[in-house]
């Protein structure tokens, strides 16, 4: 009899030659020649390319942006006219690019160290011999030996033997599923117990896990951070208006005011640089990078730095039961004596719980640890009499019980309906009481007779109910209480029984955990949209429904965070506003997520949220410093065009002011502790704080230029006076932002004043600072005194306008704008 026979002539080809697919003997496997043929035909178990960007893509995306293009053009113009002194803005731009590249490459390196399959090797049968090979060396139709603890490395069908698998990473259901001859095995699932030989039916890109990974990869990349989104909109707006404004300023200066080409370009560049919040991008990048390093020390990886802000803003957190609320490992919760009298005629040979514990201890000591249930039993029942079983009948998925014979005593452990059989109805009420509390119930009892041919004989008298569960994580209650206090609603989405999940959620302290629903009853999108607003716990959820839940919540205007560890979670993770993965799960989920908990401990989530709040609140506070300059430059440029005067500032002067009234203080303030709840929208909060300062700058500098022209003050002197006026207003704004003062903020405020004075005195040529004439100095003093009153008046006016808008225009009573 041939060891293999050809079954198809058209499954693939090598060049123009047809390739045969073979029917393989499970005891012999493929030959080396057949393996080579399959590899040449493209039927190898090669991993699909992952969603991680390459280094080249990371560098490209950080360098080639519209934001950087603007500065490249400005740099070229300044170089063209030889105004190299005014290139002081370049270090900020370069630093911003480098920080983004370094952080993303760092995240890429960590992710690449995680493998999609935790077991990259497999035992394969080839030419009658079993050998260990890398999983990527497997081919279609290979016969692979799977044992307890192995991960299924490709889709397969069982050809001999029997195993139990856990498909929770794929389906979300933690039940152990029996796979016997003819049953399908899905890649990514784990073997819990037993041993089998299976023929690979789909490898590489054709396997289930690979198809899902590819789908995740092709999904559209989105920007989820409101802060970065707002900054992008701001830059986009500026990018549109600065081109015509810049051209008008150049035309006015060169053709109408008859300035030199150098002076015209320099003034135009100064106005444009003042309109672009280049330092704000650097501030956000530095603050996020520092937060990423802080979280890395807590074993939290940010795949995307911006995700920390999104997580700090979420108001709905979707979590799974297993791995998030509970530990992955099973444990014995309690042992309860059976309360219903047995139908035995003889009296019980075991009279108290202490003896029961020891008998169970002898029983489990006789069994092998070939599944998670027995491991949990062995860990719990450590007391024993020291008796050795004469005969054991180990647990199998077919029998669903195990048995041990100690002389005349025969003990059985297994599922209630299997062990008790026709007596089950008598005990069903008692057992259901525990099952409804979320426990997995096993019955330990004494049998009248030994099993024969795998079947129990005679009646079994139940001695105890053993309650098993996945234990609640130690800090689960504390963690979920934190989210409740912060106004974050928790939704539990699981593939398990909804009643069981509800009981566990209650024990974990999740608010409204008693509101549960079976997702199998939610058949339409309308049903799901209604249910996500009413229920907290969702059981029997399919992978497709997880994604629909996320869509429904987002449709209701919620900011959704999704946690997951399985391949079945990928699509929902990709569509959530912020995605969080456990590193102990599938790397496909890790790659699809923005935040990765490297120790798979959900208890660290509050620290991530608090870090996000610190970053967002501080950047929001510091960002108003940047927008003061942007508002001022934009409005002053408009005035210069309308009233036909030359923009009074130089790029070097703008750089000096930006450094000491914006950049340096903003950097230190962004690193200060701040755990306040994030209120309102980023752009509106920042603009409202920046508007009084920006308008004050326009008033002071605009009036200074006008009076200087009337009194015949030299434009060079006017430029220096305008720079000093901007510095005074800048330090007034900084004084308010630093409140309440502490040692760091006092040092920052005083240090920046001294720094600006030092640069003006010791490096005047570098920053285009000159002496002022007597007329110019007098005008400077007058407008310096006036700025404080103007600033106070404009601040009060903006507050009143905001209050009026909130009350009459937006009709709201809380901070939403």
TrEMBL record:
Q: Where is the signal peptide?
A: none
GO CC term (a single one): membrane
Q: Does the keyword Transmembrane helix apply?
A: yes
This protein's UniProt keywords: Membrane, Translocase, Transmembrane, Transmembrane helix
> A GO molecular function for this record?
ATP hydrolysis activity
Q: Does the keyword Transmembrane apply?
A: yes
Residues that span the membrane, as ranges: 63-83, 89-107, 234-255, 267-290, 623-646, 652-671, 691-712, 718-735, 747-771, 777-798
Q: Where is the P-type ATPase A domain?
A: 117-213
PROSITE patterns from the entry? Answer: ATPASE_E1_E2
Q: How does it sit in the membrane?
A: Multi-pass membrane protein
Where does this polypeptide localize? Answer: Membrane
Concerning Pfam families, the annotation shows: E1-E2_ATPase, Hydrolase
The name on file for this protein is: HAD-IC family P-type ATPase
* Organism placement in taxonomy: Bacteria, Bacillati, Bacillota, Clostridia, Lachnospirales
